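ENTRY TYPE: paired fold submission
RECORD: A
CONTENT: sequence, then C-alpha cells
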Amino acid sequence: MAKILVAYFSASGTTAKVAKNLAAATGADLFEIVPEKPYSSADLNWRDKKSRTTTEMNDESCRPAIAGEVADMDVYDTVFVGFPVWWYVEPRIIDTFLEAYDFSGKTVVPFATSGGSGLGQAPRRMQTLAPDAKVLAGGLLNGHPSQAELKEWVENAR
C-alpha cells in the first residue's frame, strides 16, 4: 500500500488547517515545515519592500532554514506539499524542503492557499528542485474543503 505524507508550511494557519484535513482524509502522515526563525507579522508584510518575505522572494537563492526533519522520507511514495502562494510561487522555505530530501521516484503534489492568485509557476519550479520526482499540477485548496471534497480532489490530482 502506498504511503503518503502531507508536508506543509503555514504562515498564518490557513494552510495548516487544509493540510490537517487533507492528512485526515487520506490517512497520510503529517509534517509541518517550521522555519528555524519564525516569521513575525512584520516579516509577512508583502507591501513592505524591506520585509523578510519580500527580500527572500527577491533572492532566488534564498533558502530559509527549517527546524526539524522528516523522520524517514524513504518510506513515502507520495508527498503532498502545501504552502501559501507568495509572489505567484511557493515560498523559499518550500525550496529548502525540496532540496533537503531525495524525491527520486516519488510523486509530489503541490497544494496551496491563496488570497487571490493561482499556483503560478510553482509546480514547474518544484519540478526543477526535485528533478527525479513526478511533480503534478496540484491545485488551490481555498476555503474549508470537507474531507469528502479533499478525497475527491486527491483522486483527480493523481
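RECORD: B
CONTENT: sequence, then C-alpha cells
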Amino acid sequence: MSDALDVLDQVGKWKAGGKKVAIATVITTWGSSPRPVGSQLGVDETGAMVGSVSGGCIEGAVVKEALAAIADGKPRLLDFGVTDEQAWDVGLACGGKVQVFVEKVN
C-alpha cells in the first residue's frame, strides 16, 4: 500500500470512529524539498498523525494549522521556504520551498 493510501486509510478509520480530522497535502515544491508533491499528513483532533509532508522540519507548524482547521472548518494554504522567516523557525533549511494545503475532512 502506498503512503497516500496509508494516510487515507487511517483518516477513514478515525472518521468512522467519530473523530474530527484534517489532511495536509504538499501542492507545490521548488528546489530542494523533503517530500514530493502529493505527500500527505493526516491529523486527528487529538494531534495524532499519519504520513508526512516534510520529513519533520515543518510538521509541527502544519499540525498546529491542521488542528486550527479542524476547530474552525476553514482551509489553509501554507508557504514555507528559504526566504520565509517562519521556515527558519520551523527548521526548513534545506534550501527549497514547499506549499501545503490543509483542510478539514467532513
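NOTES ON RECORD B: Residues 56 and 91 are 9 Å apart (CA to CA). The mean pLDDT is 86.
STATUS: closed
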